[in-house]
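Model it.
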Amino acid sequence: MICLPTFLRDNRGAAAVEFALIAPVMLMTVYAMFDIGHAQYTRALLEGKIEKASRSATIEGSKTSAIDARLTVAIRQVAPNAIITFKRTALADFSDIGLPEDFDDINKDGICNDNEPYEDSNGNNMYDVIRGKTGNGAARDVILYQVDVSYKRILPIGRLIGQSDIMTMNATTVLRNQPFGLQGNVEWKHCL
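Modeled.
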């Protein structure tokens, strides 16, 4: 029979109890560090590769599909099931990024309407709130190159801390095409 003072001094098995209390927190911390590290590595890879790809794309005769394919291979080495989307927007100048097409606001309402003339900078015969043409553009055009990546996290840590299991990131870069020819002409049209 064990008396109470002897029982209170007995510390056998204390390490197992302490480990059982600390292990979940420690494992969550290690998983979170691994998840954050993988995401940061993927983001750094994406940003580095998009910079390299965009420099290659500014050269005359470059094949954007081949450049996108190389970028896809590099990203899929660290995120095998990633969904990757590419978007290129050609603009006349750096100051055009994020701006709508120009228009003469004759009625001073701040909206392109009532047959007001506008600059159809992308040639699609309609007024756009985002200026630029889809694609790699022409000589001296500024290219806004955007890549969006989403992939399933390696560890299910997101679910455990109330986040999504899908990691999403994007990278954007802006460069000017080499001067291998002349920029296209812009045509003025009328708003509806």
